[in-house]
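Lecture 7 notes: from sequence to structure.
We start with the chain below.
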Amino acid sequence: MKVEKNKLLVKSLVYDAIGMASGAIPVVGFFLDFLWAPYAAKKMLDMYPGKKGKLASIIVFVEEILPFTDVVPTFTLMWLYTFVWKKEQSPEGEIIEVEIVQ
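Predicted structure tokens for the same chain:
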């Protein structure tokens, strides 16, 4: 789990850097966002399956399409949300009470 978590962080940082780099290129960067936005949305959905991945892919698509929003690190924020801010209880850590009826 820790290795996968670290791989997702590295991917997130790389994808955010690519998204931000397109904003640094005058004139052409705006058009590159039209190519990058659907690709970024697909990658977000691949990295985070389920409802939260679908919502995050929509957010990253909109963020990449809108001008002047390339500085928002959407992938990294999603990683932080998933692994730092929203700690999900693992099934092995839960105590289940069992009543034995005879």
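Points to note: The chain is about 70% helix and 0% strand. The radius of gyration is 18 Å.
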